[in-house]
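User: Hi! I'm working on a homework problem where we have to compare a predicted structure to a textbook description. Could you give me the structure for the chain below?
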Amino acid sequence: MKWLSQLWLIQSCLLVFLILDVLGELGNPYQILGVHRRATSQEIRKAYKQLAKEWHPDKNTDEDAENRFVEIKQAYELLSDPERRKRFDDKGITEDDFYRKPEYPSFHTTTPLEEFFTQQGSHFNFQDNDITFFHKLSITTRQYDKIIVPKSEKTPHLIFFYTDWCFTCLQTAPYCRKLVDHLEPLGISFVTVHAGREQNLGRRLSIHTLPCLVLLLDGNIYVYKETITSMQKIIEFIRNHMPYKLVPKINDNNINDFLNGWSDNRVRGLIYEPRPHMRLRYLVTAYHFRHRVAFGFVDSDEIKAQYQVPGDMDSVLLFNENSTQPMASISMKDIPTSTLHTIISSNQFLALPRLSSQVVLDDLCPCEWNKMKKKLCVILVTEDSSNHDLHRKSFRMYAQTSQYNVEKVRFAYIYHDKQTEFVNSLIPEGTSVEPMLSIVILWRKDTSHVKYEWITDKWEIESDLNYTTQKLENTINKLLRSSEALTNNAFVKDLFDEHSKGTFSKIFTKIIYFLESTYEGVGKSEILAVASILGTVVFIVGVGYLMVYLVKLEEESIQNRQNKSGNNNNNMKSNNQPELKIHDLRPETYNGLVRMLKPGCRTIVLLLDNQSRTQLIPPFHKAVWPYRKNKTLMFAYLNIDKGISWYKELLQLSLPEEKDLHINPRNCVGTVLSLTGHRKYFCMFHEKHNDTRRTRRLRQRNAAAHRGERDCESGAFIGFDSDSSSEDEILLQGNLLDGLPNWLDRLFEGSTQRYHINYWPDFSIK
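Assistant: Happy to help. Predicted structure tokens:
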């Protein structure tokens, strides 16, 4: 094994030498920018701005200016990134030095160990299953965020996750090679990620196993869970995740609506193939140009004959506002993707496009600070109304017949009501320019600074346009000269994107993507578990609704029977409400109401006489009505004239000392007793007369010595020790039970005073 360790040592040395060689080719970024190693970010930015302005190819005529400008930009990007700068300061290398290729930096070399096995003809030849194939295409998290995600808006990306010692990854290397050879000519990029080095990226993209293949479309992630060895399944996976109805089928019924739908500011394209289904290359091309061209797949022989499309070839036809004949077409056995992109890029705008977004403005009127290369943009200002359709049509005809090169002059129109801020910023201060149906000529020096000039005559179709046309041509010819400058300057903001989705559309799109990603992220076992849970929930909810429905039917049936019974005897209310019985406490009912009460039960007794019966029964009934459903309560009344001896003996049993009481029955009227038969105690309620002078004087005289006398429940008030029956000592019957409801609440709370006795006295009639 000694020779093996020596080979590994040789491999390490060669790797170090190669890194140093690569570093030498890159150059020192500090020397390129002319700053020292301890320079701050502000100093680096200042040096970059000065050098970029000095070596910009448009300003510097030196032959090496372009290469010098690229070096300055790369050096600034390295030093402006703290992580890359630290890696360069510590080791003299960056992450981009390892993995260099024309588009994504990568590094590839053959190790001495592999060369040894290759030269010996051993069966350990790694030419097909070489892990360095993945290294060549490997990207970092920074490259994913800065390069891959923005490019995914137009170019689908397949991202393959691997590690060095993953034998399954080695086995899939030949299939990945074939996948790259097949998909890259179609416009699909294939990159790899080392999962061991980029763990955060793997977690962000929900990578749960290795190897793993991920599809990136417009920043959205879709994880491929089938076998990587099947190219057909991968192609179907890509097709299924393309935007919904990206390329609809076109037949005789919808051909006119499709070709005349250019009001969305997009060119129309027809794709024809001598096969029933469209191939992936055209689908990817339609995805790439979807913001500028709307494609449709022809599914009609009549359309093919109308536009004279060869039946044995693939054909692509592009239409502008004129739907009678295409403005560009191509027919071949197999149209290469590069050829498709070239033709579509040259014809991706209408004859008179609308400035509907900042992207359209940048494509039609790019920034050009050099007067020699300036590009003019001639814009007709209209409103989003059918009233200006004829004005736009005549201006379109003029643009199509003009002799100006599109590389120098571009014609367009704009909606003033949708781009109000942009148009108003082009109106000079202190002037009375009316922008509607006027023409403005723009020259964009940079993204926000424009020079412009208005044509004072409006584009009115009712009047003779010859004079306006001649004046417009004279102005354009004059401004195309490098010595001529536009009159006015303005700083403008970005155009409003008229094609952007609304709030509800964005929410709906996010919900759809969330559902798709959730479905993609759930395996078969999880699907069964989720389906089982959902089925159980649905079953429980269904049974619940069924039970509620049956109960509702039963209630309706009972209600109908009660209604019938109520109609027969006119007593529905009494049948629906529980009955409240008030018993008469006398010797025959005494045992049942008091002595033989079950544990926890009690009897509420009202004391009255023959004169107060009719006045006290109704308020007593009203006070105890809320407790009618309580099965532990019974209600009764006692005629004090008949039960005075029993009541007197009950009071004597509750007093601590035996005392001969002289009770006036008239003063006992309105007293309410709560008798707890099993526990042998009672509670008392009694309302005293509050208006007589004698009662008030008695209260004031006895308040200090007997504080409980004011509480009618304290037991100190007997008030019955007078034989007088004068009016001053007779209580008002109308107010006797006003405080009974509050007393009942405190009774059931347990806050009333209890008077315990040893036995219940016998009940005998006086």
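For your comparison, note the following. The chain has a mean pLDDT of 80. Residues 524-569 form the longest helix (46 residues). Good luck with the assignment!
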